[in-house]
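Notes from the pairing session

We agreed to fold both candidates in a single pass and log them together. This is the raw record for the first candidate, unedited. Please don't reformat it; downstream parsing expects exactly this layout.

Candidate A
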Amino acid sequence: MNYKNKKNTLAFALILGTFSALGPFTVDMYLASLPQLAVFFGTSAAAVQASLTTSLLGLGLGQLIMGPLSDIYGRRPPLLLSMILYILSSIGCAMAPDIQWFIALRFIQGIAASAGLVISRAIVRDRFSGVEMTKFISLLTMISNVAPLISPTAGSAVMSYSSWVGVFIFLGGLGIALTGITVWGMRESLSVQQRVPSSPRTLMKNYNSLFRKRTFMGYALVNGILFAGVFAYVAGTPFIYQNIYGVSPQLFSILFASNGLAIIIGAQFVKVLAGRVTESRLFLLGLFMAFISSAAILIIVLVHGTLLAMFISIFLFASSIGIIGPISFTLAMESQGHTAGSASAVLGTMQFALGAVASPLVGMAGENSALPFGIIIFSTSVFSVITYVVLIKGGTINSGVKNRYDSNT
């Protein structure tokens, strides 16, 4: 496949978007079957929910493993191995004899799915740079964000014809399809000359180098902090919309799906303006939108505002994530080169780690209070602005040199 040919750009994005979507499908597709799982295994809802936690943990930690492996051995071998592991773990989940085995296999499934997330982003860095990378990541974001919109519905559809077992058989089939794509539809994007030595010392050196890069960590933290806000509204809006505003489950599903649409719109906005407006200006616009919309959310919570006002504010916050995500990725990854896998792992793990901290805090005041939600959402935008000022803008000032992204700021 000639990735430089513009005719192949959409096909390439669809392929990588499918690998990126494996994470959301793994997490979301079986949500409708949680009650059925509790009955099948004769266990509590909390025990079944632990399988969701372990899969998220696998998705987060797995990126720290798969990213460096792709820097050492190239992109295709770890991706192929992970897809085979994904197939086996999915079938294992379908055949699990008890809840303990199921939880353990979900963790392995999460690790395997993480390869699709982290390696697809590393491949983008291998093939594109500058404005072209920004445009491609925006396109990839739009494609991959379709997955959270359709995966719960797909899971419900599968369950209407089978049981929870059918969901994991379906996921195993998806793994088989991605294995075929890896073998026959993808070329290696990282040459042997660009790969890093395979030693623990080199691995730690690469991570240490990334953590010491002030600007890289600035963009990674801003992205991760704001995505913690995404995890907060994922955890909080089911209770806020249904318990506080009294919407039906059907209306809630529409409102929730609109958040994914907002991210897609934000990414499309970046794709259209990339090359016409500097990345730094788009990044600042996204930060401004996040700050204003999150402040509005907190105010609406405090004054017990209307459902429409809350929905619009959350929609705008999600749109700002669609803007910041592609831009922060481009600006963070631009100078990483042969360590793109490790850099992509840091970016991805930061999102899951900070999201894991934020999401439980939403329920601190109970199911009928939105105050923690409002405070957390607003705090993410405040901390992201502080991070930008201290690490990104501060790093530029201290270095005495403006990079090309800040030249027109």
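Candidate B (folded immediately after A)
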Amino acid sequence: MESFKFKTNINCGSCIKAVTGFINEVEGIESWEVDTQNPDKILSVEGKDLQADRIMDAVKDAGFEIVELVEC
């Protein structure tokens, strides 16, 4: 299983509803959540054969900002 984390501007329940349809259409995603309590509004995604670009495109298509967080 792969996992990715992203900094976003998805900051409330309405935003999560707005992006849900877009994220759910990305192939390979098994689960995702947004930590709206974190100042960076972290989107965590898990699944198989995931591509960060596809996740980022889906969030951007929904009208939100997104930046991949790279672990050192």
